[in-house]
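Sample A.
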Amino acid sequence: MLNIALFGPPGAGKGTQSKLLVNKYNLAYISTGNILRKEVEKNSELGQQVKEIIKKGGLVSDEIIVQIIEDELRTNTEKVNGFLFDGFPRTTVQAYILEGLLLKMNTELHCMLSLEVPKENLIKRMTARAEKENRPDDTQEVIKYRLEEYENKTKPVINFYKEKGNYRAVNGVGSLEDVHNSLVSHIDKVLQKIWFNVVLLGPPGSGKGTQGHKLAEEFNLTYISTGSLLRKEIAKGTEMGKSAETYITKGDIVPDEIAIKIIEREINKHPESRGFIFKGFPRTIVQAYILDGLLRKRNSSLSLVIDLNVPTLESFRRLTNRGKSGQGRVYDIDTDTIIRRLENYEKRSQKVYGYYGKKHHVVKVDGIGSEDEIYKRLCETIKQALKRAR
């Protein structure tokens, strides 16, 4: 998810540039000014409250702003890659409010881009706009008041985001194309720093491990398999390995405390990573919450959830054959253990799919076919997701 706030004084061109950026990056456009003007036009209860404030060029109360922003966030979450905020936040109080609203959605503001335009240019632009659009908030008196409000109340927001390290000043003087290209350049740099995280779901024997390794290499991501990591701990005879061994040999799920420790350790080992492919975790709805928490701790979130779809009988056949091949794991050799693993998966997976179905678009990929055929399907799925995200 990509979240941008486009900042700058009245008349800087935020509305015009916002439309271009919304289309380019598939973002939901959230403009407090537009929303409030629509409410005034409808003569709604909210519109009546803010009508006089807007006429004078004043700032609407934070209680009203929170209400409309939260409503917009809630109703614009599907089929978009994030949000572009125009006209919000306008004060440091609102900056804190936005932090809280995005935290509630398990995301954050990735950059604050400020269009820098000299005052004389702003006055000329707004005067011309007043004549063309007949906007009541663009009279000479109101223009002067709005610019003073920006200097006194809104400019301190810059310091808030400078301290967070995600503030960027952009020259707002020049052709429409030049300003747009400058904004895109900054945004593309931000996108390169945002992790792309994938959860690879599917029953035991669906091929997650084989495909996960190849996909991580293909897309320059870090592959994290809790099963593989725990088997290494068992082989080394560590305390963690000893604790996990009794669960793994029975085909049971390892306690969450062990899984958290090993996943967090692996994430910390790769600070330079562009993102992660998680295989074998989460296996329960509790673990789904845990993974969201682990990523949120690092100001990140899931980008894609893939369901490698394989029928139960096919999974059983694959696991049985793997056990007979001499390359099977300890839990592939015994038929009862294989059945136990598949039953555990069936019982617990539905809640995991339900959890991700509400928060993310789970993409089903057919897991039947040759290794190369399945790999091509998975690559195409990730390429499409990257295209939407980037």
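Sample B, a different protein:
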Amino acid sequence: MSFSIEQILRGDLPRGGQSPPAAADPGLLPVSLRINGHDYHLQLESRVSLLDALREFIGLTGTKKGCNQGACGACTVLVDGERVNSCLTFAVMHEGQEITTIEGLGQPDNLHPLQAAFIEHDGFQCGYCTPGQICSALAMLKEVAQGDASLATSDLTKAEVDLTDEEIRERMSGNICRCGAYLGIVDSIRDVYEQQKGQ
């Protein structure tokens, strides 16, 4: 019977004529994440970002890695309905929370209204930032519906926010589009906002 160098270094040698099961890596933690309505049970290092857990361990590659330092917004996902830069938070911090990625919003034959609006209004060019833009826009519309003010809100005494183009640009300023499709992004968000107001 032969053993690899890795087995010897880990101490995975036979005892009493039997090979013991491989020891659990003490550097890994059991993590359960609820993503797009499904539960995922993982073994992760505590320093694995939510972004890397989504892309590398679960295979949900719609969430993009842009700057990996929270500056571009390409990795934006929703955590309990709030927008989060998934590159800046650890996966282990989100047990028990509902995580939504772009894959959880719509399907090709049943698009989310924001996805359909981005297509209709040319809200993207290369598409790399689009998943983060759409997740961020969805949370932004929720913030507006709750009456949350932004730096661009001119009248803080009103219960309802007037969603001007300036408001949209300010509220979406954490999401960069390197192609410069900002006019289409603003038009897409305004379209969905008007649809929601009409319901």
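Observation for Sample B: The two ends are 72 Å apart (CA to CA).
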